[in-house]
Each structure stands twice: as structure tokens, then as C-alpha cells.
Amino acid sequence: MLEAEMSNPTYPRHRTRRGVLTGSAAALGVAALPAWTLPRSHGGLEVLALLDAAGPFPWKSAAAFPDATTDDWARAKRLDPAAFGPDDGWNLVFRCFAVRRPGGRVTLVDTGVGPEGSPASSWAPVPGRLPDALSEVGIAVSDVERVVLTHLHEDHYGWAVLPDGTPMFPDARYVVQHAEVASLDAGSSSISYVVDPLRRAGQLHEVQGRVRVPAAGGSLTLLPTPGHTVGHQSVLVEGGRRRILITGDVLVHAVQLAAPEVSYALEADPATARRSRLALLELARERRALLATAHLNHPFIEPR
Ligand SMILES: [Zn+2]
Q1: Among residues 297, 167, 282, 185, which one has the least CA distance to residue 234?
Q2: Ligand 1 center to residue 43 CA distance, Å?
Q3: Alpha carbon of 112 to ligand 1 centroid (Å)
Q4: From which residue to which does the signal peptide run (predicted)?
């Protein structure tokens, strides 16, 4: 557990800093940096954590995780102290990941809360800054060949399209589980804001189940992890210095890492979500993969 790395969390929203995640990273005392790079081994894949937004969630912690015990909260606080705001507040970040292969082409996993006017902007703490975060690490929108959406919640598809319906990444195939799209209500903002525009542009690519995507230097494997939503998926990245498991919202708070059986109040199917969480953590331990999380205050974290 890289607890020391999370001991001095800050939210430098306009600062660019890239780091190397090694054993000595703990000494840096840095946490929610806008961009945090896990560098590739020679010729392999590079995984970059990109901060879109940070701030308090509208729900109090106890309301969001009603099953958590005092002991669960104490362990969670040791894992992610920055998540604990005053008056039982929950401070979280909204993070995306870029997987860059040799030559510079990129798979982006999730797209944050989006700009002013996106569906999430009615409740997100601040508008997103993903375009700045991408340019700070030298990624142009045209470099993105694939966008994997772990699920179709507002804080994960925010920059997939612009508010006028134009896909943000003109050359990308947007990959989502068919079960996720099929589960949406016809009148939902997920359909009108992101699914319909991507479909009209011919850029929506629905997949079913586990899918391995070979890439020069390694591979990405899409893993169905249902429960948070019906068609939620996570992404295993192989071919870098360490295997990386991009969790999506299988766990949204350190309390679900400290106590994986603890449900989040907004999970579509808590029992299924719990099974997915336990299975994903087991996979991460087996494969010695680092977890890459969307909402914890440190982007990369050892499974427990
Ligand atoms: Zn989320």
C-alpha cells in the first residue's frame, strides 16, 4: 500500500507536473497531480492519469456508503485522508487515463465531467479541464484513436462530445459495452447527449463481454464488471512496467478498498457490484496489477 504517497494530497489545478511512479515516489508527497505518468518499459505502453476536476461530492459520506462501519471509515481514512472533508463531506477527484503506445497513438479511458453545459456540470464541483490536461502531456485530440467509456454516467462521458454534439475526438472509435447502451432509458441524457451524437457520427462501437485489444507494445483487455451500472467495464493494460487495472467505478471511495463488501448507494445492483469488486481486486492481486482509480485521490494504488 502506497499510503505515504497519499499523505500530502493537494489539488493543483493549473500546475503541470509529471512524475515517475517508483519506490521513491512516496518521498515526493504528491497526490492528485493533474498528470501523473507511469512510464513505459522500453517499447511498451505508457499510462497517464489525467485530472479533469476535483472537489466535494453533493452527498455526505455516510449517506453514500450507509453500510460502512466506524472501523471501515478509520481504515479508509488511512488509505485516502484527502477524501475526508469537514462535516462528513466526501472530497473526490474525477480522473481519466490515457494509454499511449509507441508512436504516440492513444487510448483514452473515460472523459470526466466535461465542460460548462455538460450534464454533469449541474452537480460537479467545477467544470472539467481535460483538454488542458491532454495538451500538457502532449496529446492532441487527433492522437486519440480509441475512447473506452467504462460506463455511461455523466462524470465519465463529459468530454466525449461537446455540448453541440460534435465528437471531441474526431478519429476515435468510442467503445462501450452493448449491455450498457441497452440499459439506458430512451429519454435519458446519456442517450441524447452522448449515444445519439456518437451513433450519428459513426463513432459508437458497442462490444459484448471480454475483449482483448492488441496494441503495439502491449494490449488492453476490456473486462465486464457489472453492478455499478448494468454494462460497466474495466480495462487491464499489459505491456508497461507494471500491469495496470483501470477500475472505473467498481470502487469509488477508499472505503470500498478497505472493505470491498461495502456498497455505494448509487450502484444499480449492489450484490452484482460487490461480486465484481471482489473479483477485480482478486485479479489485480493475482496479476500484480496496480489499480488505477477514477475517484480516489491518488491515481495508482496497490490492491489490498
Ligand atoms: Zn464516477
Answers
A1: 282
A2: 32
A3: 8
A4: none
- 213 CA distance to ligand 1 middle (Å): 24
50-83 pLDDT per residue, tens: 999 999 999 999 999 999 999 999 999 999 999 9
Residue-wise pLDDT for 285-295, tens only, equals: 999 999 999 99
Cα 157 to ligand 1 centre (Å): 10
Determine the distance separating the centroid of ligand 1 and the alpha carbon of 159, expressed in angstroms.
14
**CA–centroid distance, residue 180 to ligand 1 (Å):** 15
